[in-house]
Every structure is written in structure tokens, then in C-alpha cells.
Design goal:
It contains nine helices and five strands. It is an alpha/beta fold. It has one domain: Rossmann fold (3-Layer(aba) Sandwich). The chain has a five-stranded parallel beta sheet with strand order 2-3-1-4-5, with helices on both faces.
């Protein structure tokens, strides 16, 4: 089974790429952010650890971790973020590796892994190839305003926190340009998959 890593800046169109890979090629898509939500569910790997570190004030009425409450704590007190990351990232990685192993045993041909901190958390270590979804900043800004309603200030803040294009390019084996139409993007993905 070939594992493709998918990375790129916010608003680059990673979700579009993943959706097309799933629909057109039957690729198993694993998104670290969604796995992160799952590992914090009651009874799952990170639930007890997060509760122990942040207290039961982060729970909703059903005993689930309220991610908004947790986010409020972490982002109002930045020194708490490393504690959360130290719990979540290893649990997410372990779960992703488990899913990839299960997919191998099922005889899947392809899997794609996407993570917001793909390079920072070294997800590329278990991918056969990493694709950088390369999108101009002005296109990304427009998309973030249209799809998420972000302000310029919020976008500036996010972009400052992300790796530069050069850092992505240095660690990725393939570049998929996404400045045009959805059809152009699909065509570029098809060419990459034919390789």
C-alpha cells in the first residue's frame, strides 16, 4: 500500500484534494484533526489524560470533552498548549498507524494522511510520498474569507504561524498547484496518480 502525505497552508485546498482522491481513486483518507477529536471521546486513548491535565470543567453535560471550553483554556494560557499537544499528538499518531496497518491487511492500494502540523509532527516519516498543495497567498486569503468568514487580521495571524512555502517545498516530493478551477486541480491530481 502506498501512503501519500497531504500538506499545505490553510486555505490551499487540501480538503478538495482528499475528497477527489477518495471519490476517484478509492483512497483511504485519514485526517489527523478528525482523529484528534475521536481520541478525546469518552473511553478513548486521550480522554482520561486530557481530563486529568485540564480538570472536569472542560466537560459538557454528557461527559464529553467540550473542545470550545478546552480551546478557551489553551488559547488564553499559551503555556498550557504544549501539555495538550503532548497528550493528543502521540495518541493521534498511534491511531493513524493502527488504521494504516489495518488498511494494509485489507489489501488497500492507497491511503492519504493529512495533518495541520504535518511537517512539525513528522507525519512524513511514515508516508511514501508527500504532496504539497501549492496555492498563492491571495487565493488562500480569498478562500478563507469566503468559506470561513475570516477577517484579514485572523488570516494574518494564521499565516504567520505556518511554515513558509520554501520549508514545505524542501520536505515534499511532489507539488500540486491549486490556483485555478476544480477541473484543473483534478487534472493535476490525475497526472500525479498516473505516475
Amino acid at each position: 500500500m502506498k501512503v501519500i502525505g497531504i500538506t499545505g497552508g490553510v486555505g490551499s485546498g487540501k480538503s478538495q484534494v482528499l475528497e477527489y482522491l477518495r471519490e476517484q481513486y478509492g483512497v483511504l483518507v485519514i485526517q489527523a484533526d478528525l482523529v484528534g477529536h475521536e481520541v478525546m471521546e469518552p473511553g478513548e486513548k486521550a480522554y482520561g489524560q486530557v481530563l486529568e491535565a485540564f480538570g472536569d470543567g472542560i466537560l459538557d453535560r454528557d461527559g464529553r470533552i467540550d473542545r470550545k471550553k478546552l480551546g478557551g483554556i489553551v488559547f488564553s494560557c499559551q503555556e498550557r498548549l504544549p501539555a495538550l499537544n503532548a497528550i493528543i499528538h502521540p495518541a493521534v499518531k498511534e491511531e493513524i498507524l493502527k488504521r494504516l496497518e489495518a488498511a494494509r491487511k485489507e489489501g488497500r492500494t492507497y491511503a492519504a494522511v493529512e495533518a495541520a502540523l504535518f511537517l512539525e509532527e513528522k507525519y512524513d516519516a511514515f508516508c511514501d510520498e508527500t504532496w504539497y498543495i501549492d496555492t498563492d497567498e491571495d487565493v488562500r486569503r480569498r478562500r478563507l474569507k469566503e468559506s470561513r468568514g475570516y477577517t484579514d487580521e485572523r488570516i494574518d495571524q494564521i499565516l504567520r504561524a505556518q511554515k513558509s512555502r520554501e520549508e514545505f517545498l524542501a520536505r515534499c516530493q511532489a507539488v500540486v498547484e491549486n490556483n485555478g478551477t476544480v477541473e484543473e486541480l483534478k487534472d493535476r491530481i490525475d497526472k500525479r496518480m498516473r505516475r
